[in-house]
Amino acid sequence: MSVIEPILNRKSTKIFKKTEPISKEAVETIIEAAIQAPNHHITEPWKFFVMQGENMQQFYDAAMEFQKNRDISEEEFERMKVKMISKTMVAPTVILAVYSKNKNKTRGKYEEDILAVGAAIQNMLIQATSMGIDSIWKTGPVYNATEVKSALGIEEDEEVVGAIFFGENDNAKELLRKRTDKQEKTIWL
Known about the structure:
alpha+beta; oxidoreductase activity; NAD; Nitroreductase
């Protein structure tokens, strides 16, 4: 079994086709891959909020409420309306990966747990690629805004580590991913 192929083939998709959400079975397989991520003391410091269909509008509305509550001009707010569509309504399925301190496992440390959630996200991206599902991992203040967390039922002390968008690429250009050669980033001691 080789995992290098989906790792090398994974690319961030910015434009998705307007299709049906990915299936419940596909979502469950992607989340199964996520929960296999390494985590010190087996703290399992994550929750996954799946959004499809009408939930996407709820997410957008909460993001717009966040923008409305910021101290910005009417012109800036109008610009943000358009930007929020590309931040929240871009794909048919979104999974929010949330750091949630496991209150039953007190040995967990924030630094380790937050990295474990990042590892879970990486597993999700690789699993999706292996299934032929395109994706992108997004971050930013809107995902942890009080308005968004309240609307989606995310606890105040929880933290959205990433919004992962899933669907089918609709970009006419071939997605290129250029990385620095490993030789330039490796130091042998």
